[in-house]
Amino acid sequence: MSGGMLYRKYRPGDFSEVIGQEHVVQTLKNAVAKGMVAHAYLFAGPRGTGKTTLARILAKAVNCEKPKQGAPCNECERCKAVASGRAMDVVEIDAASNRGIDEIRELRDGIRQVPSFLPYKVYIIDEAHQLTKEAFNALLKMLEEPPAHAIFVLATTVADKMPATILSRVQRFDFKKLSAEQILQKLTRITKEEKRTADEAALRMVAHAAEGGLRDAESMLTQVFSFTHEKLTPAVVEQALGIVGVARTAAFVDTLLERDMARVIVVLNEMYRMGASMEEFLKSLTNYARAMMLLRLDATLRQAAAPELTDEQFSVMVAQCKKLKDGEAESLMAALIEAHDMTKKTSIATLPLELAILKYFQGVV
After folding, report:
1. How high is the pLDDT of residue 100?
2. Does the predicted TM-score (pTM) go above 0.70?
3. Residue 217 to residue 199: CA distance in whole angstroms
4. Domain for residue 338, yes or no?
5. What is the rounded distance in angstroms from the CA atom of residue 65 to the CA atom of residue 72?
6. Is the separation of the CB atoms in 18 and 53 below 8 Å?
7. What is the C-alpha to C-alpha distance for residues 307 and 22, in angstroms, rounded to an integer?
8. What is the pLDDT of residue 337?
9. What pLDDT does residue 103 have?
10. Dist CA 102 CA 363 (whole Å)
């Protein structure tokens, strides 16, 4: 099973299947239904949130023979051609690897020709911010005077790097990260359709580790499915992905609060020897420490601090917060932030966390 197999298999083919981007979906459907589709769009947002997926659905919708309230029918030959990648009039360009003027000139030459099969030619440019200055200038000329049969969809994870001249000529949509609950619902459905069994806690762990990216979550689930054919449990997910779940992170914090520095270092290295990714554990510990810091400020901040925690896990965190001295959570956060910066500067996986632990104890002991 390849890393992206589940992602491809369960990729939305209709507006109704897209989750987490309702504001974008409704506007695009209305535009298609009313014949008010813009000539150029910018889809901006974190990776794995559905930008290219929605671009492909839009390509189907504007070319569909019998659209239903702005949505593609997915039954006509045009829809099938776009969905299968056979439609030559839908052109996808990865600007990360095709970022030069030659590729844009080729696009410019092609755009002048009328579509071969579909009513509209749709150009989807992924990671558009990586185009060169010369390529942007050439693209700008096409956006200023686009032929009536052309629609552009620029997708980017870094909208701030897009030239202002380009931004002024596109209709912009900002995509949001998905919540852990939204991702959990999709993973639960996939698990059932794949006839696999899983503890909710295991799927919730995957959903949380994806950090708002559905594609990442589906790729992680593919990896876990490949790791075992047995029931998915939190322990299985931890072993398959090298991540450290909430329970183990909470146990590590308990060890920290015992004020035994040597013991903490031993536990950390035991986790590493058992296959835990130190980079992933650093993320988990940082998120946990942030939640503790916020709860120390105001105990009612649960939704902002730790929405993914179960009631039992939240109770454990509240009890741990009561053991912290004033300023201790902030000191831990500061040390962990420095550790994140150091991960890029050393090949010793445990070193950034070890130094963070040493700095933390210097401030509390």
Report:
1. 66
2. yes
3. 16
4. yes
5. 8
6. yes
7. 21
8. 94
9. 73
10. 57
pLDDT tens digits for range 19-34: 999 999 999 999 999 9
Residue type, 289: A
Identify whether 8 is part of a domain: no
3-class secondary-structure state, position 37: coil
Domain end (from 123, 144, 174): 174
Among all chains, which residue has been given the structure tokens 């239903």?
68
Give the model's pLDDT for residue 1.
Answer: 45
CATH number, domain of 212, equals 1.10.8.60
**Domain at 255, CATH number:** 1.20.272.10
327 Cα distance to chain centroid: 33
Residue 2, pLDDT score? 43
**Is position 119 within any domain?**
yes
* C-alpha angle 260-332-339 in degrees, rounded to nearest 5: 100
Q: How far apart are CA 99 and CA 91, in angstroms?
A: 15
Q: Is residue 10 part of a domain?
A: no
Closest CA to 83 of 17, 36, 143: 17
CA distances to 250, 275, 279, 359 from 340, rounded to whole Å, are: 20, 19, 8, 14
Per-residue pLDDT tens over the stretch 327-352: 888 999 999 999 999 998 999 999 99
Report the length, in residues, of the chain. 365
> Residue type at 293?
M
Range of the domain at 226: 180-241
Give the E-state strand segments of 163-272 in sequence order.
Answer: 171-174
pLDDT category at 4 given cuts 50, 70, 90 is: low
**The residue type at 363:** G
Contact criterion met (CB below 8 Å) for 151 and 35: no
